[in-house]
Amino acid sequence: MGTLIAVCISEAKGTQKQNIKTCFLKCNWGLENDAHGGNWHRQVSLLSYDKVKEFNQSGANVSHGDFGENLLVEGINLAALPVGTLIKCGGTLLEVTQIGKECHDRCQIYHKMGDCIMPREGIFAKVLKEGQVSVGDAVGVVLSAAVVTLSDKGAAGERHDASGKIITKMLTDAGYVVKSQILLPDEQKTIENTLIELCDTVKAQLIVTTGGTGLSVRDVTPEATLAVAERIVPGIAEAMRTYSIQITPKGMLSRGVAATRGRTLIVNLPGSPKAVKEIMGYILPTLEHGIEILCGLVGECGG
To answer: Which domains does the chain have, with CATH numbers?
Structure first.
């Protein structure tokens, strides 16, 4: 968790940004009255205050806003966050869209010091939820998720998607932002394409699937997951089956897998609403730590 140190805008392009300490963060723009705002992917610029302090130790004497940043944040290594990361600042929500930028024209800081940290340490974001931001606000990373229900009958409108709704509520209650909830038939290629989209474009950090993990010839969720995966995470599936078998011997029939693609963890759950609720309650606390490691938000476990 970090802290907002400065809120900086410039009302005209070509002028120095000033720390105004509080400002309204607008969707499809950025900071209200900031001349560099706009409906594009670089609505808000952020910089780690810790990096500025390190830079100032070399005698730079840089003040708030001198790098052209809108939000100066202490306690988070912003440049280490993957694109797609969600950041909560006060009551607002941002999505990281770019890490660093190419510097075409050398700034005054570069000419003075022979270096400028903004091109490599600055990040950019778009506003997903608007509101007031003020110096002293808490700033933190919010994990994102997607829920995919696999059911021929559900996709045909013949069955209510109770399991998908249970997963979405449990994720939301645990603090995740659910970016997408999708209902699909048991068609392997369709499932593969959806998982790729959610991993590579939507950039959900966790995808939870429900259904299609049994022994029916139409149950192809594990095959679709493995087809798009880069690495398997066998311990999660082993733990889920071990837990399920303690409740019912039928738990041994589940073929669900867990795997990663890029910075996304994919976990297959069974289709039963009862089983979904039980297993999600069991694995959810540990999944959070695994996702944080996968996304570079924390270090590896000691041991």
So the answer is: 2-141 (2.40.33.20), 143-294 (3.40.980.10)
